Amino acid sequence: MFDALADRLDSAWKKLRGQDKITQSNIQEALREVRRALLEADVNLQVVKDFITEVETKAQGAEVIAGVKPDQQFIKIVYEELVQVMGETNIPLAHVEQPPTIVLMAGLQGTGKTTATAKLALHLRKLERSCMMVATDVYRPAAIDQLVTLGKQIDVPVFEMGSDADPVEIARQGVERAKAEGVDTVIIDTAGRLQIDQDMMAELAQIKETVQPHEVLLVVDAMTGQEAANLTRTFHDEIGITGAILTKLDGDSRGGAALSVRQISGQPIKFVGVGEKVEALQPFYPDRMASRILG
Ligand code: GDP
Q1: Which terminus in the chain has less CB density within 10 A, N or C?
Q2: Does ipTM top 0.85?
Q3: Residue 115: how many CB atoms within 10 A of its CB?
């Protein structure tokens, strides 16, 4: 495991070999390599700095356990810290006793938000939770059609009021309909812009205020790398997210965005998107992601 990191740490280890303690001076080179590995995995710079400081504190003074090579021990400390920062275990989607559970999807256009809405609905349906999807992206009529088509494909009803209605009103009525029909979970797809803008945030905030969702999931494209940090900060400050879905992990990104999202918002990644198909959604597991980030 972590062969790539182990290789690059090879010269750094020479300084650790023969030592009985990991100290500040013998660890610097190893920390620099970890820093490089994380930056290559597209973890945000500030997040990397904070992470390295934490690892340094933990590693310093750690007794080298007899029979365990210091390099192995160091990698273990890095790995465990990564897993811890990303939340240790999978945190499932909220499920309230009095239905419907209301999930609000947020994110920029093109991140895979509409696809993730349908993926999530299918995932829940497989768990025998009935779903309804609500199409509030009136600015891009194709988005409503896309959701309707996906709904047919997975046999999940879509609530829509066309592209002339007010998104806040669509969301409100959608939730009312889900309540009336005894639907278990209602997932609201919202408009995404190419860039964050105030109108978009204000509208999202208003939808949130109106429907009082149990989950606000930020959809983050894993390929956006460093930018994932700014995106998370803005959405979390302005709207308040409860979790995230990291999409496009089937691409060649190492998934560093996962660490940034978690570290910045304190909220867990709940799912990962691993393909264009509607089945391509998996629960997020911090240990698997830690392995991927470390390479
Ligand atoms: P939205 O604008 O955020 O609603 O994005 P869409 O759901 O329309 O997705 C944008 C593009 O990304 C589409 O071509 C999707 O098929 C694609 N996409 C979404 N999720 C994934 C994923 O996990 N992996 C890959 N490879 N493509 C994805």
Answers
A1: N
A2: yes
A3: 24
Task: Read off the amino acid at residue 60.
Answer: Q
Q: Is the pLDDT of residue 124 over 70?
A: yes
Which residue is closest in CA terms to ligand 1's atom 12?
112
82 CA distance to ligand 1 middle (Å): 27
| Amino acid in the structure at residue 64 | V
Q: What is the pLDDT of residues 156-208, one digit of tens each?
A: 999 999 999 999 999 999 999 999 999 999 999 999 887 778 889 999 999 99
CA distance 114 to 107: 10
pLDDT digits (tens, 9 = 90+) for 133-143: 999 999 987 99
Interatomic CA distance for residues 123 and 102, integer angstroms = 15
Given the structure tokens 């799912």, which residue do they identify? Answer: 271
Choose among 105, 15, 109, 98: nearest CA to 64: 15
Nearest to 124 by CA among 210, 204, 215: 215
pTM of the full predicted structure?
Answer: 0.92
Ligand 1 binding pocket mutation candidate from 109, 144, 145, 276 (most atoms within 8 A of CB): 276
Contact between 112 and 221 (Cβ < 8 Å): yes
Q: Whose alpha carbon is nearest atom 27 of ligand 1? A: 276
- Give the containing element (helix H, strand E) for 104: strand 101-106
Strand order in the sheet with 215-221: 158-159, 131-135, 185-189, 101-106, 215-221, 243-247, 269-273, 281-283
